From TrEMBL:
Belongs to the TMEM134/TMEM230 family. The chain crosses the membrane at residues 35-56, 77-99. This is Transmembrane protein 230. Involved in trafficking and recycling of synaptic vesicles. GO terms for cellular component: autophagosome; early endosome; Golgi apparatus; late endosome; membrane; recycling endosome. It is found in: Cytoplasmic vesicle, Autophagosome; Cytoplasmic vesicle, Secretory vesicle, Synaptic vesicle; Early endosome; Golgi apparatus, trans-Golgi network. The keyword Transcription regulation does not apply. It comes from Mucor saturninus.
Length: 114
């Protein structure tokens, strides 16, 4: 009885019927993506303004800013600051890693205005 794990005949080789396999090197090349400067500018604006609003909201909540006018505005500043800061920091993070060509990061991950 023949061993089923052993190949039948070692002299039998693969014969290519055609030289062209249907693929070209150009299929696997990716085009260089332009840097979306407007989206990065918006992300920077969101990051800075959101950080300022977060800092103001936290200072109001912990009692460093004690003016009567500002006392009711702590929570809205924290909420709006978070809404602006989180996406801004995320897109700046992606832009930084894409600029320095880290694997898996590309400027295509940043949505741009069309």
């Amino acid at each position: 009885m023949r061993n089923p794990l052993k190949p039948k005949n070692k002299s039998r080789r693969f014969a290519e019927l055609q030289e062209d396999r249907g693929f070209t090197d150009a299929q696997f090349e990716t085009a260089k993506t332009p840097i979306p400067w407007s989206a990065i500018g918006l992300a920077t604006l969101l990051f800075v303004v959101g950080g300022i609003l977060l800092a103001l909201g936290i200072l109001i909540k912990i009692g460093q800013i004690t003016s009567e006018v500002w006392l009711a505005r702590g929570t809205p500043f924290i909420v709006l600051g978070s809404i602006m800061f989180i996406p801004g920091s995320y897109h700046l993070y992606i832009a930084y890693y894409a600029y320095y060509n880290y694997p898996g990061y590309d400027f295509n991950l940043i949505p741009d205005w069309d």
